[in-house]
Design the sequence.
């Protein structure tokens, strides 16, 4: 459906050497975009990942190290990319603790990486998009950008902030060929989530199916994980001409979570 319509565009995807970010990057590359992968590491494996993706999809793929907790490195990522027609703000971390015991350093890191990084990359990318006369910003928020859960104060605050930033960015670019939207996934089956299943099975004394449906997906009415491919395809749709009038809003990919 979307084959190669993004040829000639450059997409920067933060936090993209695994999980949702990597899935989104693959879908954008499949649609023809050149891709900049990113994380805070700088290993041979990171650069090999870029080479493999380039070979798979026949596009240019680079890996650029940048720590999303640093405002300067966020902005430098866009500068080093050289072009940024599509910006996907995906980088994120999590910590779960009641508010009185929530470590200050964890709060600061989650706010910086999950929310402030999106501001800094957007601020650096918008001039490039305006010069090109076209742009797409997709913020990977969360169902927790629209609702809340206990013990996730920093994450919920950050994701609500990302949704707010999305609205402001959409308004500031409303009369240009630039859009900004947030995707709000529920639980997505990533390697990190997959690795948690065996321990959760032991903790609750349940089989795999019951742990997934009764524990992990308790709040997700579909009782099915979203996939990284579904998040990637939603991102690609938001980059298409069909989505030209979709801006400043959220799209939930959460199996009905926020319908409750």
Sequence:
């Amino acid at each position: 459906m979307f084959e190669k319509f993004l040829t000639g565009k450059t997409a920067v995807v933060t936090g993209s050497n695994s999980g949702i970010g990597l899935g989104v990057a693959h879908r954008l590359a499949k649609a023809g975009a050149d891709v900049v992968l990113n994380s805070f590491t700088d290993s041979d494996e990171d650069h090999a990942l870029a080479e493999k993706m380039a070979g798979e999809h026949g596009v240019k793929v680079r890996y650029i190290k940048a720590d999303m907790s640093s405002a300067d490195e966020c902005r430098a990522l866009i500068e080093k990319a050289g072009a940024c027609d599509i910006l996907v703000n995906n980088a994120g971390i999590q910590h779960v603790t009641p508010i009185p015991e929530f470590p200050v350093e964890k709060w600061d890191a989650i706010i910086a990486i999950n929310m402030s990084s999106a501001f800094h990359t957007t601020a650096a990318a918008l001039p490039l998009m305006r010069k090109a006369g076209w742009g797409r910003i997709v913020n990977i928020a969360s169902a927790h950008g629209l609702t809340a859960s206990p013990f996730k104060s920093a994450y919920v605050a950050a994701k609500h902030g990302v949704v707010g930033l999305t609205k402001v960015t959409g308004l500031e670019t409303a009369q240009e060929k630039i859009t900004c939207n947030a995707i709000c996934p529920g639980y997505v089956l990533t390697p990190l989530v997959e690795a948690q299943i065996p321990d959760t099975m032991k903790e609750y004394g349940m089989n795999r199916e019951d742990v997934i449906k009764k524990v992990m997906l308790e709040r997700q009415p579909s009782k099915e994980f979203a996939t990284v491919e579904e998040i990637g395809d939603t991102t690609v749709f938001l980059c298409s001409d069909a989505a030209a009038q979709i801006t400043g809003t959220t799209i939930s990919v959460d199996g009905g979570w926020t319908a409750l």
About this structure: Residues 189-225 form one domain.
